[in-house]
Amino acid sequence: MKKLALIAVSGIVALASCKEVGPTIDFAKKVDSTYTATVETPQNRNVMIEEFTGVTCANCPAGHAMIEGFEAKYPNRIIEARIYPFNFGQATPTDVTKQDFRTQKGTDLAFVFFGGLSFMPACVIDRVPVNNQIMVSSPSWSDQVDKRIATVTPLNMYITSAYDAGSKTANITVKTAITQDIAKKLNLTVAIVEDSIIDAQEYPSTTDTFYMHQSVLRDFVTDYTGSEILPGLNPKPAGQVYIRYFSYKLSNDAWVPEHCRVIAWISNNEGKDIEVAQSVVTHVK
């Protein structure tokens, strides 16, 4: 395999809320790289679900259960982030809430990037509209997941994380291998989610103070809108490989590294075309 180019990426991704921690820094000792290789066989598609939910949303536990059903139906092929926004009553913590899951970046994703949030639970599934709506209610989820799981990906993705307990730092590697020519701009988005958080959740007639929250969005490693990959190539030819490195410090003591996962996805970046091409996940530790 012949290296064609080396792309040095540096900088700090500043956190957009005082409730979030960081920052994210690209590896100082490793340099993002791109090269050509033998074209790979396309992977099975994973489906990316961005679920907007809240601890005072009484109908949201039913939505969580639906997505867990998809995970049981398609093992290891559903990538989920549960996003708790500010400025939405159903996500406001209760007087028995221990942790506030809301993030400014998740709020900006809902209201700026996706154009607004008017109901919960709401899902964005692979960022593909249903009846011209990017956010869809639960009656549409199952059909959309079934449709997306059957489509062919134009690229393969791989992700690893090496955790340094001393510095509480996850050293993340994301590899993308193009499997068919792509004549579109592509964005890479990387985020941290956490599982197994015991905290309050409202139901229609009660509040469960021992509810187990899963896939809670903690922070974005990249910008929440993503970071463009291979900007100098158009089209991006089959066989092109791109590797990017990140170092992210879990400096919030409330987060449990053993329960955290890194998720990453590549999406189109062509105006309203923001379809997810592929998504992957790995444990932080």
**Architecture per CATH nomenclature, i.e. the level-2 architecture:** Sandwich
Strand content: 35-45%
Alpha carbon gyration radius? 19 Å
Oligomer category: single chain
Output the number of helix runs.
Answer: 3
What best-fitting shape do the alpha-carbon axes yield? globular
Total domain count? 1
Could you name the ranges where pLDDT drops below 50 across 5 or more consecutive residues? 1-23
> Which sequence of SSEs, written as H and E, runs from N to C?
EEEEEHEHEHEEEEEEEEEE
Name of the CATH homologous superfamily: Immunoglobulins
What does this structure look like?
It is a single chain. With 285 residues, this protein is mainly β. It has a single domain, classed as Immunoglobulin-like. It has helices at 60-73, 104-113, 141-149, and strands at residues 2-6, 12-13, 24-25, 33-36, 47-52, 78-83, 122-125, 155-164, 169-178, 186-194, 197-202, 207-213, 216-220, 227-229, 240-249, 260-268, 276-283. Strands 1, 2, 3, 4, 8, 9 and 15 form a seven-stranded antiparallel beta sheet that branches. Mean pLDDT is 91; it is low at 1-23.
List descriptors.
single chain, about 280 residues, mainly beta, Immunoglobulin-like, five-stranded antiparallel sheet, disordered N terminus, Ig-like_fold, Omp28
What is this structure's SSE topology?
Layout: E1 2-6, E2 12-13, E3 24-25, E4 33-36, E5 47-52, H1 60-73, E6 78-83, H2 104-113, E7 122-125, H3 141-149, E8 155-164, E9 169-178, E10 186-194, E11 197-202, E12 207-213, E13 216-220, E14 227-229, E15 240-249, E16 260-268, E17 276-283
Parallel strand pairs: 5-6
Antiparallel strand pairs: 1-4, 2-3, 3-15, 4-15, 5-7, 8-9, 9-15, 10-13, 10-14, 10-16, 11-12, 16-17
